[in-house]
Amino acid sequence: MKKDILIITSYFPPEIGAASNRIYHLAEGLEKRGFKVQVITPLPNYPTGKIFDAYKGKFKDSTLKDNITIHRLWIFASNSKNKLLRLFAMMSYGFSLFWFFLWNRIPKTVIVQSPPLLVAFISMLFLRSKKRKLILNVSDLWPIAGLELGALKKNYSYKLLEKIERFNYKKANLVLGQSDEILTHITKLFPEKETFLYRNYPNFEAPQLKPIQSSSNKIKLVYAGLLGVAQGIYKLCQELDYSNVEFHIYGSGAEQKQTESFIIDNPNLPIVYHGELSREELHKALLKYDLAIIPLLNRIYGSVPSKIFEYAKLGLPMLYFGGGEGETIINKNRLGWVAEAGNYKELNSVFSKIKKDELNLDLMNRIKSIAVNNFDFDNQLDGLEKKL
């Protein structure tokens, strides 16, 4: 008999990005291992902050896809910079969750995604039971990350968020963390808490690599992902030394319009914005580039960008510009180069030392081999299954 499991998340396909991909692959992997999987998620709205056209006018939508039951609940969708509006958006989804909990049978095993912190809190508060196993999947440390990003200040609200964070850890039977830093933070607060390192390894077939065809002597640099404040792509466009580099950008987000305007205002610079692609289309496009950049405007404790593992499986060399544990993974596995987070002078210095002929098929195949052998999704999920 299949074991029931429920996953509660704020992001899920058709929304794009690392968060939705991570949860989808978790759900898909558990279903293939014989679990009867349900997912609760809001009506799709990320990153635009607007309900997708196919779901407009709906209060709830339940479908079966890939043998996974997906419950999409009402949310007041917003990506406004206004903190009160963002709070209301989270609380609206929290209200929908509470209503769902009242009228539906909840499985004995539940995986709750955090952040958002308040959504996780509502789930942990109303689902706690001696008969139920609550698993908290922590992908970023809030409120610490918010403080480091400048989105939060150490005041009464911050102290309240710290209390909510601790409540979530305390009520969890098992905590999954995507970095060693996350697990270290949690075990300092709750030394006896059971934890499991669950990184955001990709689940796709590694491609057959071919030499990159290029008529230019410049390195074809690519960024793909969220064009948000934390990534700092707009500032990167301003600070890059383009003497050895042409810069290609894929994605969308809060800084998209600024970035597009900068490109229009500086037609002499070799920057190309390609818009947004599906994950499958993006993987094909990335194989055309010499080097990927993974930037963070500031070093964020606990953060390990999932792009590291995704690009590695594609055989794409990386320049990591974010510090912390991500930098350690790049260096330890020899996946590319690193520059100190926020230090654009050092970044350009590193670029100046990279030779285009270094970025060859041998390097790409070596990186892909490291990913296949060390960042295996199925092996990791096998370890998690034993904990469920």
From TrEMBL:
MF (Gene Ontology): hexosyltransferase activity
Keywords attached to this entry: Membrane, Transmembrane, Transmembrane helix
Start and end residues of each Glycosyltransferase subfamily 4-like N-terminal domain: 18-192
Classification via Pfam families: Glyco_trans_1_4, Glyco_trans_4_4
Matches recorded under InterPro entries: Glyco_trans_4-like_N, Glycosyltransferase_grp1
Transmembrane segments: 84-103, 109-127
Coiled coil regions in record: none
PANTHER family linked: SULFOQUINOVOSYL TRANSFERASE SQD2
Protein name as it appears in the record: Glycosyltransferase WbuB
Species of origin: Aquaticitalea lipolytica
